[in-house]
Specification:
It is a single chain. The protein has about 90 residues and is mainly β. Helix content is about 15%, strand content about 40%. It has a five-stranded antiparallel sheet with strand order 2-3-4-5-6, with helices on one face. Strands 1-7 form a two-stranded antiparallel sheet. A hairpin with a 2-residue loop joins strand 3 and strand 4. It is elongated, with a radius of gyration of 20 Å. It starts with a strand and ends in an 8-residue tail after the last helix.
Length: about 90
Amino acid sequence: MTTTTFPPSDPLTWKQADTDVHVATRDGEFAGFVEFDGSAHLVRDARGVDIGRFVRFDDARNALETVGEPTRRVRGFSIPRALLRRPRRARP
């Protein structure tokens, strides 16, 4: 499998999706989101992994910025050859 990483210099772009949800993208790809649950800002990355809870929105945004370089799949998933074979009938 081949993957491509974005350079860390590519900044996140933020958009407000709802009154309590902000979505981040990097180079047009989903990078994560921040959701306010009434008491704290919850941060999740592009795969839905919980990054943490933060009192301030700016701290939540910075946490997602520093989560490491996201990866993007360039080629599609390939199924192992053994699974592509047709099943054989049992001989009587």
